[in-house]
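For homework, think about our next protein:
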Amino acid sequence: MNFKGNLSAKSVIGHGKLARAGVSSLMSDLTRIWPILADRRAVFAGMVALGLAASVLEAAAVSLISVLLYLSLGGGGASRLFPWIQDHFDIDLNSLFQVHFWFVCAAVVATLLLRAAAVASYGVVAVSLKSLVFHRLRLRLYQRFMFAPHEDASQASFGFITNTLQVEAPRVAELIDQLFRMPINACGAGIFFVVLLLISWPVACLTAIAGLALALLMQVSRVYLHRLGQRILALNEDLASRMLSGIQALRTIRAFGAEGREFDRFADASKSVARMAVRFAAVENVVTPSTTLAALGMIGAVVLFSHALGNGSAETLTIVALLFRLQPQIQGLQSSLTSIHGLESSLGLVVRVITEQVPAQPPARSGRTPLAPWDSIRFDNVSYRHPTSVEPTLNQLSFEIPRGLVTAIVGQSGAGKTTILNLLLRLTEPSEGAIEVDGVPLSSIDRLAWLGGVAITGQDIDVMNGTVIDNLRLGRPDLSAAEAMEALTLAGIADFIGSLPDGLETKVGERGHRLSGGQRQRIALARALAMKPRLLILDEATNAVDAKLEATILQDVRSAFPDATILIVAHRGSALSDADVVIDIAEGRVRSIHYPHQTAIA
């Protein structure tokens, strides 16, 4: 899945693969999504079997009731009602039903009870499978977003991601549920049609013709529903984007007194979604009663036709009873088709995301184990060009980060500092040149083992939703409470955490919103220190605290980790005053390297 170009529902809809409609497109998408659910094929088959059993049992019960109704209305006997059976099999239906009347009644009751049990079992299995489908799709989508290449993930629309996970995935689960209902309804309709055929083949043929006409009528709404589904998909993404941006930027919005305008924009987006949902529901609700009215018209035509054939009232009423049971099956079939047409756009979107090649789990360990201890990290003519950019972000960059010293990287915004950090964190790879650790290409070193010795904290590093200790255990799941307090002490926030009623178990809130900016930064710093890294990256890590505290924290960190290499990205002079090496970056190139303390670099 390529997130480049700010992938969104609108851009996906414009993609030819999703824009086309038709049975071939639907089947292609279903074929591509099926491997995710293939291990549950037996359960799906069991669900369909239960539905078919319920249809067969209902048809059997209705057929028996029809015979009893026919006899009670003075019909000429069961043989007249089913002439085909009488003509082709040596069975005296009249004697069978008259002699065993109470047995037939008991059979009807038993059949209805069995049908009720089958329907109940089907309902439980259907709900379970629908939940399973949603769960599998949600996991696959989240996996796709989590393990996507950094260049792609960084370009993704948060509204697109949220909408796909929370709205489109359950819509696809609903589509699959409706898809499996179709053969059940079709089978039920087929069984009632066979019974009708045994009673009067001319009436059955007229019913079939009327049913085909009804199906053709339903096709008129198909394309319109598909287009509405695409429009709803795009509007839902826009609404999700506005909701997220409003929540995440609430402080900024209030600072500019823009609450009213942002609320109005959100209200407009919500109104658009509501209007489109009403329009979609209106079409569905028009189609359903229209189908019912058409079915009633069909029944009326069949009654007239039956009388024209010379059938008596008993035969005609029996046929009407069968048609009334046939009508819900046809209506259910049409309803499923209508829902599927409206959900096709969601299926196309989700399929396009989840069927790309993604790791089934975090990247496996491979390559060389990182050298320990290493002496230097060297950028050797490193260039990097973003796939969507014409100009390179880094251009033949060469410099060295010596072990055990503080190296500072400075430069204006857009100079390439963040890209350098992304390369060190293995979020992306150089377009040209190489990064070497004691002469060994970084790309050949096991990624997870390398990251086990690297920690980063800074202005763009999030505090996760959860407790304080949950955050500190992000890189070290086995971190003890004592080690956590040690890291918090180094970060200058242990006293504050200790004063809280829940201490390390204090909830920090989503994105740490219960903490001040400085407190969030220091908890993020403690999280990095808890890993006891060989390479500690401080990306504007303490710009939310005063200069004196910042200097104290840096000195304490250097004392606690004398052999660690510290890489600082900062603008404030106080943060650079303790640097042993300062590398000035401009337009993706090294402008200068100087040594404030004239430290000898090995």
